User: Which sequence fits this backbone?
Protein backbone atom coordinates (compact mmCIF):
# COMPACT_ATOMS: atom_id res chain seq x y z
CA UNK A 1 0.00 0.00 0.00
CA UNK A 2 1.11 3.52 -0.74
CA UNK A 3 -0.31 6.65 0.79
CA UNK A 4 -0.78 10.19 -0.36
CA UNK A 5 -2.07 13.19 1.49
CA UNK A 6 -5.72 12.08 1.36
CA UNK A 7 -5.53 8.58 -0.10
CA UNK A 8 -4.28 5.07 0.48
CA UNK A 9 -3.93 3.05 -2.69
CA UNK A 10 -2.67 -0.16 -4.22
CA UNK A 11 -3.14 0.18 -8.00
CA UNK A 12 -1.24 -2.14 -10.31
CA UNK A 13 -1.54 -2.65 -14.05
CA UNK A 14 -0.05 -5.27 -16.34
CA UNK A 15 0.70 -3.60 -19.69
CA UNK A 16 1.73 -5.17 -22.98
CA UNK A 17 2.99 -3.11 -25.92
CA UNK A 18 3.55 -4.67 -29.33
CA UNK A 19 5.81 -3.30 -32.06
CA UNK A 20 4.24 -2.12 -35.31
CA UNK A 21 3.48 -5.10 -37.57
CA UNK A 22 4.92 -7.24 -34.72
CA UNK A 23 8.36 -6.67 -36.19
CA UNK A 24 11.06 -8.39 -34.14
CA UNK A 25 13.39 -5.48 -33.44
CA UNK A 26 14.34 -5.97 -29.78
CA UNK A 27 17.58 -7.56 -28.69
CA UNK A 28 18.81 -7.68 -25.07
CA UNK A 29 20.57 -4.29 -25.22
CA UNK A 30 17.55 -2.57 -26.76
CA UNK A 31 15.20 -4.13 -24.18
CA UNK A 32 17.47 -2.89 -21.40
CA UNK A 33 17.42 0.64 -22.83
CA UNK A 34 13.64 0.48 -23.26
CA UNK A 35 13.31 -0.46 -19.59
CA UNK A 36 15.50 2.50 -18.55
CA UNK A 37 13.38 4.91 -20.59
CA UNK A 38 10.12 3.52 -19.23
CA UNK A 39 11.39 3.65 -15.63
CA UNK A 40 12.14 7.35 -16.09
CA UNK A 41 8.70 8.04 -17.60
CA UNK A 42 7.05 6.23 -14.68
CA UNK A 43 9.12 8.24 -12.20
CA UNK A 44 7.87 11.49 -13.74
CA UNK A 45 4.29 10.27 -13.25
CA UNK A 46 5.10 9.30 -9.63
CA UNK A 47 4.51 5.69 -10.66
CA UNK A 48 6.83 2.73 -10.21
CA UNK A 49 7.84 0.25 -12.89
CA UNK A 50 7.90 -2.93 -10.79
CA UNK A 51 8.67 -5.48 -13.51
CA UNK A 52 9.79 -5.29 -17.13
CA UNK A 53 10.58 -7.93 -19.71
CA UNK A 54 10.03 -8.60 -23.35
CA UNK A 55 10.73 -10.56 -26.50
CA UNK A 56 11.70 -9.51 -30.00
CA UNK A 57 8.29 -8.02 -30.82
CA UNK A 58 6.67 -6.95 -27.52
CA UNK A 59 7.25 -5.86 -23.93
CA UNK A 60 5.47 -6.54 -20.63
CA UNK A 61 5.36 -4.03 -17.76
CA UNK A 62 3.99 -4.20 -14.25
CA UNK A 63 3.29 -0.66 -13.07
CA UNK A 64 2.23 0.59 -9.63
CA UNK A 65 0.60 3.99 -10.13
CA UNK A 66 -1.19 6.65 -8.06
CA UNK A 67 -4.92 7.34 -8.46
CA UNK A 68 -4.29 10.84 -9.80
CA UNK A 69 -2.73 9.32 -12.93
CA UNK A 70 -5.02 8.43 -15.82
CA UNK A 71 -3.66 5.09 -16.99
CA UNK A 72 -4.25 6.00 -20.65
CA UNK A 73 -2.08 9.13 -20.26
CA UNK A 74 0.71 7.11 -18.66
CA UNK A 75 0.51 4.57 -21.49
CA UNK A 76 0.60 7.29 -24.16
CA UNK A 77 3.66 8.80 -22.54
CA UNK A 78 5.42 5.43 -22.11
CA UNK A 79 4.87 4.58 -25.77
CA UNK A 80 5.58 8.06 -27.13
CA UNK A 81 8.76 8.78 -25.19
CA UNK A 82 10.20 5.29 -25.68
CA UNK A 83 9.43 5.45 -29.40
CA UNK A 84 11.27 8.76 -29.81
CA UNK A 85 14.35 7.63 -27.88
CA UNK A 86 14.56 4.14 -29.36
CA UNK A 87 14.12 5.40 -32.94
CA UNK A 88 16.87 7.98 -32.40
CA UNK A 89 19.29 5.59 -30.68
CA UNK A 90 18.68 2.47 -32.80
CA UNK A 91 17.98 4.03 -36.19
CA UNK A 92 19.81 1.44 -38.26
CA UNK A 93 18.25 -1.49 -36.47
CA UNK A 94 14.70 -0.11 -36.74
CA UNK A 95 14.81 1.36 -40.25
CA UNK A 96 15.66 -1.94 -41.95
CA UNK A 97 12.48 -3.58 -40.58
CA UNK A 98 10.01 -1.64 -42.75
CA UNK A 99 8.15 -0.22 -39.75
CA UNK A 100 7.91 3.23 -41.29
CA UNK A 101 7.75 6.18 -38.92
CA UNK A 102 5.82 4.32 -36.19
CA UNK A 103 7.50 2.14 -33.57
CA UNK A 104 4.62 0.76 -31.47
CA UNK A 105 1.31 -0.65 -32.64
CA UNK A 106 -1.60 1.67 -31.77
CA UNK A 107 -3.16 -1.04 -29.62
CA UNK A 108 -2.08 -2.22 -26.19
CA UNK A 109 -3.22 -4.55 -23.44
CA UNK A 110 -3.89 -3.25 -19.94
CA UNK A 111 -5.12 -5.37 -17.06
CA UNK A 112 -5.55 -4.65 -13.39
CA UNK A 113 -3.71 -7.00 -11.11
CA UNK A 114 -2.89 -7.67 -7.50
CA UNK A 115 -5.00 -7.05 -4.48
CA UNK A 116 -7.89 -9.02 -3.11
CA UNK A 117 -9.87 -11.41 -5.34
CA UNK A 118 -13.29 -10.06 -6.39
CA UNK A 119 -15.15 -12.83 -4.56
CA UNK A 120 -13.59 -11.76 -1.25
CA UNK A 121 -14.43 -8.09 -1.91
CA UNK A 122 -18.03 -9.01 -2.79
CA UNK A 123 -18.38 -11.00 0.46
CA UNK A 124 -16.92 -8.12 2.48
CA UNK A 125 -19.31 -5.57 0.96
CA UNK A 126 -22.30 -7.87 1.49
CA UNK A 127 -21.25 -8.18 5.13
CA UNK A 128 -21.42 -4.37 5.51
CA UNK A 129 -25.24 -4.23 5.36
CA UNK A 130 -26.82 -1.78 7.76
CA UNK A 131 -28.78 -3.25 10.61
CA UNK A 132 -32.56 -3.19 10.15
Assistant:
Amino acid sequence: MRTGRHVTYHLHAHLVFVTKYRRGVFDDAMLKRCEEIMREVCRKFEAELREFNGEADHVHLSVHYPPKVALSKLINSLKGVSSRYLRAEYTGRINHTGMGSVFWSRSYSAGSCGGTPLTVIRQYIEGQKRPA
